[in-house]
Amino acid sequence: MNQPTNKKEEVIKITKDMNLGEIVFKYPEAAEVFTDYGLHCVGCIANSYDTVEMGAKIHHMTDEEIDEMVERVNEAVNFKE
Question: For the chain, N or C: smaller number of CB within 10 Å?
Fold first, then answer.
């Protein structure tokens, strides 16, 4: 099984109630996952105000899609996948 590759080797937990802009600033690899799911506001001024869930809901994502996207973001951030 892959191990986290971040500096402290701790598992990072991204949640849907976290600020979108802060996530992308701190973990740039998350931006690609968000855009793959159609959440293109990662480069928009709104990202500093919206949580992941708020941004996703604006883009008409279902709860299941949001959960899947957050899971993929966590994989990207922790395992560089």
Answer: N
